[in-house]
Design a protein that fits this description.
By secondary structure, the chain is of the alpha+beta class. It has helices spanning 44-61, 64-76, 91-106, and strands at 15-17, 20-25, 28-33, 79-80, 86-87, 122-131, 139-147, 154-163, 176-182, 187-190, 198-206, 216-220. The strands form 4 sheets. It has a 4-stranded antiparallel beta sheet. A 3-stranded antiparallel beta sheet has the order 1-2-3, with no helix packed on it. Helix 2 packs across helix 3.
Length: 226
Amino acid sequence: MALVKNPLMSYDAAGSVSGVTYSKGPGGNQAKRKPIPVTSTMGYRPRVRSILGWLSRIWGDLTDGQRDSWREWAIDHPASNKFGDPFIMSGSNAFVKLNHAAVRLFGVGSQNDLPPEDPPVSSIETLTGVSGATAPGDIDLSWTELGTGIAADAWEIQLAGPFQSQGRVEVMSRFAYKQKVAGNVLLDTISDLDEGFWYWSRVRYVALDGQTTAWLYAQNTPKVTV
C-alpha cells in the first residue's frame, strides 16, 4: 500500500488509523470502527456465564437415569414465562435453573445431580421497607414468612434504582443482586444508597437445593441526613 501524507484529508486514502478503517464504497468514502463490547474479567455477568457453561458440562456427564429424573421433575413443576403463562421446562433447563441459583448463592459444591424431593420449607408472605433508622442512605427491610426458614437456606435481596421519583410498576430489567440473609432471619438493612432517590427492593426465599419462591416487592427512599 502506498503511503499517503495526511491520509485523513486524502480522498484516495485506504487503511486503518487509530482503530478507524477508511475505504471507498458505492456510497462514497467510508470510515468505520469495529464495536468494542463492554466486558469485564470480574463481576456479576461473567460469573453468571461461567456458572452456566460449567453446569452445562456437568449435565453432559450425568447418567441417563439422572437426566430422566430432571425431566420428570420439570413436568411436575411448570415454570412461568415473562407474561405469567406456564410452560414445561426441559430436563436440562430445570437442572441448570436450580443448580445455578444454588451455586450462585451458596458456592461451588452446592450443585445436585438429582432434583429435590420436597418444596422449599418457607416462602415470603409480606415485605415492608422503611427509611433506615440508623444511618443516612439506609433502607430497613423486614418481612414475614409462610413456614419456618432454616439457617442453611437464604433470603435473596435484589435492588433497582436510584430513580428520580416514585414508580407505579417495578422495573424488572433493572434489578441486580444485592446480598443474602440466612433463611432464619427476617430483616436486613441496605446501606450506602443515594439520599433523596427512590429504590425498588425485592426479596425471595432460596433453598440450598436451588429452589426459589416468588418475589415480593417494596419501594422506598433511604434515610436522609438531618
